[in-house]
UniProtKB/TrEMBL annotation:
This is alpha-L-rhamnosidase. Residues 402-765 form the Alpha-L-rhamnosidase six-hairpin glycosidase domain. It comes from the Bacteria. It catalyses: Hydrolysis of terminal non-reducing alpha-L-rhamnose residues in alpha-L-rhamnosides.
Length: 848
């Protein structure tokens, strides 16, 4: 039987509210083999659209503000079987001018490098007639929470989300029909958040505005056909004396439950304006929501007397405490990723205090921060008897679907995969961050450049990455450079083009395209990619005087082999020209493919030629032309091998050299962020499968399984964040300083970049790899080794579920696979046997 699964509007199965012509997609399931879509008819009101595609169906009909549209879809399979389904979406404001005005407390100011005290706004309004529908649209400069009659509106954290506020701000729409009474009190709390609060490691504040501001409209439709809009204006009231005494990303939150809003002296709000003129757009990313509850696995009393709760997992989130308290009792919750000498180890948080403080009233009460989050595994609690508190925590991250799974017969690899997934979740809190705990949590572009592909196997990243890439596009420099962090949010470095971090404008949309097949999205990003490559070309030619050196990318600077173990920052940066040149060639290859997909043949030809020149330069300048580098290091072999820059014997020699370097390092990698994601591919795709498995299974430092064995529950920024002797690494020690005096450096225990090896688990162990956008065509080609006896991987693609499940018994390899309707799979067995398979479930076996 044919069935429509996952009918989505703008990549959401439900509750889509949009301001743009939405994209409609659907998956299909069938019990028949070799089923495919023959045609589908999509009807929205009087708009009818016939299509043979399951993705990229853009609704081009009429859109009116705040209107519900039903989507009806009928499909016919090649088998002639029929199926139908319905969903709906809502429109947002559709450009409707705001009646509400931006309001603030014009009299409020706060010092440099600090975050403002959260503002509390209030407004009372009456509803005199019977209502049919009521909703709020709202946004803020800062982050906001709304409450109607004491109840929280919606489930979002950190609305309106983090965007490049000078260019775009999202607004949210919440249905409040069921919340309204005759007399109503709306409370809005606006904390500094990213726009106004201290942010980035220099704690710059007032980045987008001098103080918080709120923009809000309450829309009410009455049964008698009339309607009303109540907007923010100077009749609204404001105070900084509310319950939230402090809230910010790094230091945490202070909440005083004793404050009674009814007894406060309120001021009139002031009407204000935004300094820039950003687009205020219906939310197009995923909002951050509580995704799960964590319970402590143990608690101990530290020598200092603090009670330390261990949640058993490093994650981004907030505590949720049920407390039996007495008036004015002050309870302090501190957070850390690791424990040293029985105490919370907080030095690696650098200046971040990561502390929540709660001041009680009498009796039973609950507290959970709403205007900050922390990255932690341990919570230290002071100020309450353990018997008077029940502690748990909420995991917070953007609300995307988990679509991938991977498991195999080696438990350590399974734990590694779990750590990779937690690394992803912890760093997908509205934007892709480098880490969730210390005084950083910024949108470092290089980290997501290398992790995007792994992320897209595990999660449906479509809305999350689409949102972030809008900001990448907006913040691209005039000269084509991509900022090192996006949104820039106070980062003062000029957006000069550099490799990997800058290549994120190509690597991220490409990973997302392969996973979801959204061609619109590639086309929206295309100009950004071209501009970036133009900048790379211009910089490569800078101060270069020979024909080949014109394609060696040295300037203005590169992060190079960032975080390569056993080296200093200076040494990482010094390897920039190898890394820069290889990434440049790879990006040209990808943009050539994208140009083909967009029908831009001339561009495709141009980037292929440019790539050839870069490759020639890499080989001439850096190697002897036969596969040996003049200056050898692992990343400089990994990149040309994985980016297909060498062929034939030269390729063989390069792989042999790489293998030698790994062996010389005691079977360890010495690659940084830019090489680590690809090292196993460089080996396994060139005949060194066992070497790849050996490296994956290495368990002494530096290695992935070293972290697992050392008790890591996420991926670390430095392989030796926890040293083999059990001490915590404090980062690079500056000349003339002792380790104790060091700043705490770059020692995050939750940094996903090195988790990019997740890609290899899916692509090579489970063997699943898309060969065209959205898995319309894909490959399943598991490579066996490492004494694995079974593995299983699955990905819920836009067409349906792809599954690969294999095992080895008595030297016989058997595999079961699932191919979604309308797709085709090339299955390659370990003995080289090939099968081209249309949809269905299949099983094969061979000797191995
Ligand atoms: C971040 C990294 C980032 C790097 C680049 C660090 O502080 O945490 O992940 O990519 O800086 O300089």
């Amino acid at each position: 039987m044919l069935k429509i699964s996952a009918l989505k509007v703008e990549n959401l199965s439900e509750n889509c509210i949009t301001d743009r012509q939405p994209n409609i997609s659907f998956g299909l399931e069938s019990s028949l083999k070799e089923e495919a879509l023959k045609k589908a008819t999509i009807t929205v009101g009087n708009w009818t659209y016939e299509t043979t595609n399951q993705i990229n169906n853009i609704y081009t009909g009429d859109l009116k503000p705040f209107t519900k549209y039903d989507v009806h879809i009928k499909v016919e399979g090649k088998s002639r079987e029929l199926a139908e389904s319905i969903t709906s979406f809502m429109t947002g404001r559709m450009g409707m001018p705001w009646k509400g005005k931006w309001i603030t407390d014009g009299s409020y100011d706060f010092p440099d490098k600090e975050s403002p005290v959260p503002m509390t706004f209030c407004h009372k309004f009456d509803v005199k007639k019977k209502i049919t529908r009521a909703w709020i649209t709202s946004t803020a400069l800062g982050i906001y929470e709304l409450m109607i009659n004491g109840e929280k509106v919606g489930e979002d954290y950190f609305a309106p989300g983090f965007t490049s506020y000078d260019h775009q701000i999202q607004y949210q729409t919440y249905d409040i029909t069921a919340m309204l009474e005759r007399s109503n009190l709306l409370i809005a709390i606006v904390a500094g958040g990213w726009a106004v609060g201290a942010f980035n490691y220099v704690r710059k504040n007032k980045i987008n505005a001098d103080r918080q501001a709120l923009l809000c409209e309450i829309h009410i439709e009455y049964e008698d056909g009339t309607s009303e809009v109540i907007g923010t204006d100077d009749n609204w009231k404001v105070t900084e004396d509310g319950n939230y005494r402090m809230a910010e990303w790094y230091d945490g939150e202070t909440y005083d439950a004793r404050v009674d809003l009814d007894k406060l002296v309120w001021r009139q709000a002031t009407v204000t304006q935004t300094t820039k003129n950003p687009n205020i757009v219906a939310q197009y990313g995923n909002s951050v929501k509580a995704q799960g509850i964590m319970k402590p696995i143990s608690s101990t009393i530290a020598p200092s007397g603090e009670v330390i709760y261990d949640f058993g997992q490093n994650f981004a989130g907030v505590i949720n405490a049920k407390i039996f308290g007495r008036n004015s009792q002050r309870i302090v919750f501190r957070h850390s990723e690791v424990i040293a000498d029985g105490e919370l180890f907080v030095k690696s948080l650098r200046t971040a205090k990561a502390t929540a403080t709660y001041i009680c009233i009498n009796g039973e009460q609950t507290y959970s921060p709403r205007l900050t989050y922390m990255g932690f595994r341990y919570v230290g609690v002071k100020g309450v008897d353990p018997k008077d508190i029940e502690l748990e925590a909420f995991v917070l991250h953007s609300d995307f679907e988990e679509i991938g799974s991977f498991e195999c017969s080696n438990e350590l690899i399974n734990k590694l995969n779990s750590n990779i997934r937690w690394g992803g979740k912890s760093n997908f809190v509205d934007i892709p961050t480098d880490c969730p705990q210390r005084d950083e949590r910024q949108g470092w572009t290089g980290d997501i450049a290398v992790f995007a592909s792994t992320a897209c196997y595990n999660f449906d990243m479509s809305r999350f990455l689409d949102k972030w890439l809008v900001d990448v596009k907006s913040e691209q420099g005039f000269g084509g450079g991509i900022p090192m962090v996006v949104p820039r949010a106070g980062d003062n470095w000029p957006p000069l083009a550099n490799s990997c971090w800058g290549d994120s404008c190509i690597l991220v949309p490409w990973a997302e395209y392969l996973a979801r097949g959204d061609i619109q999205f590639l086309s929206r990003q295309y100009d950004t990619m071209k501009k970036f490559l133009k900048a790379a070309k211009r910089w490569s030619a800078f101060l270069s005087f020979t024909p080949n050196s014109r394609y060696i990318w040295r300037f203005p600077f590169h992060f190079g082999d960032w975080c390569a173990p056993g080296e200093t920052t200076k040494q990482w940066l010094k390897k920039g020209k190898w890394v820069g040149t290889a990434y440049f060639a790879n990006s040209c290859a990808i943009v050539a493919q994208i140009a083909e997909l967009l029908g831009k043949k001339e561009d495709a030809e141009y980037y292929r030629n440019l790539r050839d020149k870069i490759i020639k330069a890499y080989r001439k300048v850096f190697t002897d032309g036969k596969g040996t580098l003049k200056n050898e290091f692992q990343t400089a072999y990994v990149l040309p091998l994985h980016f297909n820059m060498v062929e034939g014997d030269e390729r063989k020699v390069m792989t042999k050299n790489l293998d030698r370097l790994i062996k010389e390092a005691g079977n360890h990698l010495t690659t940084g962020f830019t090489g680590t994601p690809y090292i196993l591919f460089a080996l396994s795709d060139n005949g060194y499968t066992e070497a790849a498995y050996d490296l994956l299974l290495q368990d002494t430092c530096p290695s992935w399984l070293y972290e697992v064995k050392a008790g890591g529950t996420t991926i670390w920024e430095r392989w030796d964040a926890l040293r083999p002797d059990g001490t915590v690494n404090l980062g690079e020690v500056k000349e003339g300083k002792s380790e104790e005096e060091s700043s705490g450096g770059m020692v995050s225990f939750n940094h996903y970049a090195n988790g990019a090896v997740g890609d290899w688990l899916y692509k090579r162990i489970a063997g699943i790899e898309p060969t065209s956008g959205g898995y319309k065509t894909f490959k399943i080609e598991p490579i066996i080794g490492g004494e694995l006896t079974w593995a299983k991987g699955s990905v819920r693609t836009p067409y349906g579920l792809v599954l690969s499940e294999w095992n080895i018994e008595s030297k016989k390899f058997s595999i079961s696979i699932e191919v979604p309707v309308s797709t085709s799979c090339t299955l390659v067995l370990p003995n080289g046997e090939n099968h081209i398979l249309m949809s269905g479930r299949y099983s094969y076996s061979c000797n191995c």
